[in-house]
Every structure is written in C-alpha cells, then in structure tokens.
C-alpha cells in the first residue's frame, strides 16, 4: 500500500526563554523614554520661549541640539560594544540620558537647557543601537520576528504618544516635568540592568577607527544640521549649503576610507548581503517617511483644523493603535517565514493611509482621517520586525553590533532628510501664489510621503525569500 508523501511544514520556532524575555523587557524600558523625549518637547516650544524670554529660533536649539548629539554618537555604538561589551555601554548610555534629563529639569536658562539636552542626546544616541544588538544576540535569527515586534513598540508609539504626554504635562503641571518624567524610568532601567543583564566583556583591544570617526560623526552632524536648516524658516543659505555640502563630502570620504580599512567604524561591506542591503533600504525609506509624517500630521491638525496640542495628540491615537495591533499579530508570521509578505502588506498600507491624507484639502471628516491614520499605523507595525529579521539573518553573530549601528544611522538619516523635504514642500505650498488654503497646502504636501512609501516597494520586493533554519549563516537567496 503506497502512501503519498506530504511536505513537512516548517517547525514552529522555539518560544522565547526567560533570559531573552528579560533582555527584551529591559531594552524596551530603556528605549521608550529616549524615543518619547525626541518628540515630547515639540509641544513646549512656545512655553520655553516665554519662560526664558528668548526667541523661538533660540528655543529650536533645544530640539536641534538633542538631534545633533544623538546623531553624532550613533557611529560609536558598534566599536564600543566590541571593545567594552554591550552591558557596560548600555549602562553608560542609560546613565547619561537619565543624568541629562535631571539636569534639563533643573535648567536655569536657555543656554543651560540646550547644553543639557546635548548630554541627554549623547546618551540617547547609544541606547537604541546597543539595545537592539543585545536583543538580537539574545534571541537568535529564528525568534527575531517576535522579539523585534516587541522592541519596535517604543519606536512606533513614542513619536505618537510624545506630544500627548507633553501636552498633558505642560498644561497641567510644569514644563520641567517633560524631562523629570524620564528619571523614574531611567533609574528603574539602570537597577534592573545591573541585576539582570549578563556581563559580556568585550575584546578590550578593539582599535578605534579614529579617522573614520573624524569623518563620519561630523559628516552626519553637518548633514543633519544642513537639512534641519532647510526645514527651518530662519535657516540661512550658508547653513544649508555648508551643512549639506560639507556633510556630503565627509560622508563620501568615509565611504572611501571604510572600504579600504579592515575594521572601519561602520562596516559597509555588510551591504554585499542582499538581505541586509534591501532590509536597510526599506528601513531608510519607511522610517524616514514615518518620521517626516510625524512632523506633518500634528501640524495639519494644529494649523489647518485649529485643534489644541492635547486634542491633536489624542486625534493621532489611531495610528498608535494600528501599529500596536500589527506588531502583536505579525511577529509569529515573520518567524514562520512570511516576512517579505508582511513587509509588502505594510508598505502598501502606508501608501493607502497617506493617499487618504492627500484629500485633506476637501476637509474630510475625522472618521476618514482616523481610518487613514489606522492604516498608516498598521503599515508601520508590519515593517520593523521583518526587515530587522531579514537583515540579521544575513550576518553571523559577531557582526551584529556594527550592523545595528549601520541600520541605526540609516534610520536616523532617513528621518532627518525626509522631515526636511516634507517641511520645505509644506512651506512652498503655504507661501504659494495668492497664499494657499492650509488644507490644500497640506493635501499637496502629503503626496511626498505617499511617493516615498511607493518607492519603498522596490527594496521590499527584492527582500530575499526566507531560508530554512538549517541554512548556513550568510547565504543569500
């Protein structure tokens, strides 16, 4: 009697063990405050200008200083982990951020607040790449989907909840609490990290690529400063041209240097792996479009619809709900080899959501906008976990630290550039011939994030097909 062979279904990925769950929880606790803090200040700029009797141009440096310091320290993450161990670097990063938060809450002038924000940003720039690298090492490639779905929660919800929490604190308590609120979480994270994280001592002899650091960090900072000047009404042409041009020259010089050096600060040869290259490209475009949209969406409700800061934050909640729901549902799909399909669905949902916002010139109802925001959130929640899993699957464990640094730089650069492009487009439409209706100006501007979302379909389609778990590390398909 013959039997027809039935193809065996792929084995279910092993559950996350206690050690992996602990690392994930510690990292999420550490990341949530740093991500919130990047946007929580946005609703307090007028209050800070009044408090310190300075112009809005000066207060803008409270946000810009944080951004530049954040950007400057990211390239050090991979080298520092290899030399000193991820646990030590994590403790230093969270400690710097917490100390900076305390000092910001005690600031007595605008210059002191700006200086303390730089300290805070220096710590925050290390938290995300170090935390993600620790999670990737703890869970391994087979369980990366579920792990990154959880770690992605603060990255997706932080920009949405930041203005809401900031509005409540500024209106109900005092502006200082937008910084002091970080201290309990920071201290709890430090205490838990000391007790729960294993001491993974680094090699101790890892040489710092000094030339690479001298090219990359200033290049990223100059680029961020230049594109931020583009988005600022007070930005001069000298700042724009000098920042973008100088930054581009330094970054090109770094690429040439990195490709000739055995152990560069950031390992660009990882892009030879199809999985890493396409996943990083998807993150560059989608994190960019989501960061830029995080600038546009609140402004639309504040300017075109005349909502208050707190109401605006609450109206953006559907995006957070969609992101949380998607991340809760897609982690296991990624671990079962459905990552590329999940990414394609996510990018498509982003495009549909932004297409809905191109109609804001016709003043659609809040239900329409809520559905569009929910679609954007669903799309965002479908992207981070599978692209991270695809990127790390192409590399061996020893490469994780520097690969995480590379991806963090791509995300940050995409966010800065997209925000500048969207802000410039909005200014152009608002100041157009005859003065555009604010709704029409925003409707025209939302075609830009829609276009970037559609462009992200190209690397998403090129993501490699899932490999069997027994495939050798580093093989591409």
TrEMBL record:
Gene3D superfamilies hit by this protein: MFS general substrate transporter like domains (1.20.1250.20), Multidrug resistance protein D (1.20.1720.10)
Location(s), subcellular: Cell membrane
The organism's place on the tree of life at top rank: Bacteria
Membrane-protein topology: Multi-pass membrane protein
Residue intervals passing through the bilayer: 23-44, 59-77, 89-108, 114-135, 147-169, 175-198, 210-233, 239-259, 280-303, 315-334, 341-360, 366-395, 407-426, 446-465
Main location: membrane
Key words, A-Z: Cell membrane, Membrane, Transmembrane, Transmembrane helix, Transport
PROSITE patterns from the UniProt entry: MFS
Annotated NCBIfam families: efflux_EmrB
PANTHER family referenced in this protein's UniProt entry, alphabetically: BLR6921 PROTEIN (PTHR42718:SF46), MAJOR FACILITATOR SUPERFAMILY MULTIDRUG TRANSPORTER MFSC (PTHR42718)
Name of protein: DHA2 family efflux MFS transporter permease subunit
UniProt organism field: Nocardioides humi
